[in-house]
Design a protein that fits this description.
Elements: H1 3-10, H2 15-25, E1 30-33, H3 38-49, E2 55-59, H4 66-79, E3 84-86, H5 90-100, H6 109-127, E4 133-135, H7 144-147, E5 152-155, E6 160-163, H8 171-180
Parallel strand pairs: 1-2, 1-4, 2-3, 4-6
Antiparallel strand pairs: 5-6
Helix pairs in contact: 3-8
Bound molecules: iron/sulfur cluster.
């Protein structure tokens, strides 16, 4: 299957039907990863409410906000569905923190990328093992880097398709959908947190600031990505 063929199969369908079609094309081989951000909650709702057979997973880095665990808990309660949790390899975390301390990521970009690799990338790669399609809540208007992406891509490194159902949605579209469907969401979004990641590496942003400005704010320039979605 090529990207163009996949696009042809999905174009013109509702978002829910696009998800159904993805499952038809990649049965048992599709994974949606959620960090319980507002976009992810929309996709979880579409999947769970419609009983679409997509595996759902989350990465628990060990450094998340308490509010994130609260949404996690509320989501399980609301839909009664399974969300598979992936933790980092304990030896890698133990070695890193023993050697460099609990805030190594503030000291250099290299350390920050190491922490993201240990706490996010390795567990993600395990979650994606044997999958052929990865769904995530990326929207084009979230950042300049994401505007360069496409709603369906092929990840040459991971050898799988990536599908972003909300790629064309605005933040307002997402917020409206959340309100209309009374979907549980992270209360940090009401306090200026547009993108909620690990607690030590996420802060609120001012109105008009770039969507990713609240992530790794102490680093100059760069793509403000943890490596999950860099091509
Ligand atoms: Fe580590 Fe921060 Fe990356 Fe989380 S966001 S994995 S705490 S560097």
């Amino acid at each position: 299957m090529t990207i163009e063929e996949l696009k042809d199969r999905l174009t013109g369908k509702t978002f829910e039907n696009q998800l159904r079609e993805i499952v038809n094309i990649f049965p048992g081989k599709t994974l949606f990863t959620s960090s319980f951000g507002i976009e992810d909650q929309v996709i979880s709702h579409m999947i769970f409410q419609n009983d679409i057979q997509v595996d759902v997973a989350t990465l628990d880095t060990g450094r998340l906000f308490p509010q994130t665990y609260k949404v996690f808990s509320e989501t399980i309660k609301r839909y009664g569905k399974i969300i598979n949790v992936y933790f980092p390899d304990h030896e890698s975390v133990e070695n890193m923190v023993t050697e460099k301390g609990p805030f190594s990521f503030y000291h250099s970009r290299e350390n920050r990328l190491e922490c993201c690799r240990v706490r996010k990338l390795e567990p993600l790669n395990r979650a994606l093992r044997n999958k052929e399609c990865w769904i995530s809540g990326i929207r084009a208007s979230q950042s300049d880097n994401r505007r360069q992406m496409d709603w369906i891509e092929f990840d040459e490194e991971k050898k799988l398709f990536k599908f972003y159902p909300l790629f064309s949605w605005t933040l307002e579209d997402v917020e409206l959908y959340i309100r209309e469907n009374n979907i549980p969401y992270n209360v940090l979004h009401d306090k200026g947190f547009v993108s909620v990641g690990c607690e030590p590496c996420t802060r609120a942003v001012e109105k008009g600031e770039d969507f990713r400005a609240g992530r790794w704010w102490w680093e100059e320039g760069g793509q403000k990505e943890c490596g999950l979605h860099i091509k």
